[in-house]
Amino acid sequence: MRVTNKMMSNNFLRDMNYNLKNMQRLQTQLTTGKEFKKPSDDPFKVARSMQLYSDIGANKQYNENVKDTINWLDTTDTATGQANNVFQRVHELMISAGNGGYSDNERRAIKDEINERISEFSQILNTSFDGKFIFGGSRGTVKPTDVTGGIQYKNAPVIKVDKISEWQGKKLSVKVAGGASVEVDIPADIKSVHDIANKINDELEKHNITELEVKSDFNEKSLTFIANKDKINAVSVTAVSPDVILDIKGKLDPVDKADKIDSGNIQLEYYSNENDEVTDAERKMIGDKLNIEISTGVTVGYNVTASEILEFKNSEGESKNAIDILNSLVNHLDGKTADGAEAGSIDSIKELLNGDLKDVKDILENLTKLRSRVGAMQNRMEGAQVRNEEENFNIKEILSKTEDIDIAEKTMEYATMQTVYLASLQTSAKVIQPSLLDYLR
């Protein structure tokens, strides 16, 4: 076969182009720090890298899930601890009520405090976190419990509170007729109408205004102003902050404390969003477990429900209902039977110290068991968070080995390729000899 100059030139250009492509590939790797720029560079490594990026993204979400769950469990632990304190106090009051030297009036005072504790317990069960009621199960946007009964005040001036957010961080001016104006700063992190009432009462007490008291209603929707008519003629409440969007300006005529209506003992009950009574479907939703995925294929239930707190089995396996227990003990303090029928005072006290006292101990044991479960889940979530972070670190290390270059190695390869390129140029200059055309010029 005859070898022509054109064939030699074409072979030279092909080889030179190949060398230039290799130099370009190495130069791109050095500038990007990656082994590949497009899938065709290394399909296997690209596929593996994409899978590793997917794993890292999933792990980040798992880590966010774990962090949110830890915050939820912290709130649950605080709430169950507060509920435990409530029933510890109820237990102490019940023991005091068994004192033979106590009069009916003294037992009635104990009953009044227990009524307040029942209301407090309902507020604890309605604790919210991140816009959801933590004990509400899958019906988290609706509070699980409510209370009825208690003392109401006839014709008392009321200020409606539609949204807590409209009160947060605002300043109010409460002025008693004939007295000084008291400015009340509402904290930005205020959580309930009950807390607003407490804040106003604290400021009034600091200014020695003891004739006026502010109460929140049980539904957490309004503030009621109660005062002594003989000492206070009127109260004005004004929004001081210019950006307040509250219709609370004007004069209020306080109701006399004597104008109160006792609508019976406070009773705890499940709250229905649409009906007078809780339906079976609503009750089931309140008792539902909330699940969250904390790693691939690992899903855990993390919430405590109001149903678990209110309806449980004691150590003897007997079914107990905290709502019935609370109703029973306040009725016994009134000298009645558990269902509210008239009975002898002595018999009621015996029932209080025998059955009711044991039932309250059972509630405390159940709360302790639930709080222990929350603590165990907190430990598990903290362990999962550590494992998740370590796994993410390991995946990133594998990813680095898959797609990152060895700088020293690639620098040497690039230098070698430069030498090869220059050598090919020099060699080609010697291989391509002058042709006949060079002599005819």
TrEMBL record:
SUPFAM superfamilies, alphabetized: Phase 1 flagellin
A Pfam family matched in the record: Flagellin_C
Family statement drawn from the similarity comment of this UniProt entry: Belongs to the bacterial flagellin family.
Lineage, top ranks: Bacteria, Bacillati, Bacillota, Clostridia, Eubacteriales
Entry protein name: Flagellar hook-associated protein FlgL
GO molecular function: structural molecule activity
Main location per the UniProt record: other
A GO cellular-component term linked to this record: bacterial-type flagellum hook
Keyword field: Bacterial flagellum, Cell projection, Cilium, Flagellum
Subcellular location(s) per record: Bacterial flagellum
Stored InterPro entries: Flagell_FlgL, Flagellin, Flagellin_C, Flagellin_N
GO BP: bacterial-type flagellum-dependent cell motility
Domain Flagellin N-terminal stretches: 4-138
Keyword Ubl conjugation belongs to the record: no
Flagellin C-terminal domain span: 359-440
